[in-house]
Amino acid sequence: MTQQTLLAIVGVFIGIAIVVSGSAGSGNWLGDLLAVFGRVMSMVTTRYATATEVSMTLMLETVLAPVWAYLFFTEVPWINSILGGAVVLITILAYTLYLTKEDS
Predict the structure, then answer these.
(1) Of 44, 53, 98, 104, which is least packed with CB atoms within 10 Å of its CB?
(2) pTM tops 0.70, yes or no
């Protein structure tokens, strides 16, 4: 086990301890726990993917937030949110197509 993986595991346990103790967080323990886990996993991911790929994937979190809000809470997103998300998704798609052409 590498030092970075060990530190990530320790970070998850520290995050869990903080959330469970109630000393920090939003009061939504499951959401806080998943946020800690997601951040640690995105840190570990940088070992296996390029920084560009990781940052583009993290952009999807922001782009897909209105979609999840609509699906789970029937909250209709503003047109600006839809247009901005479309720009980011088109950019990610274009970059992915560029990489696949470059590899073949």
Answers:
(1) 104
(2) no
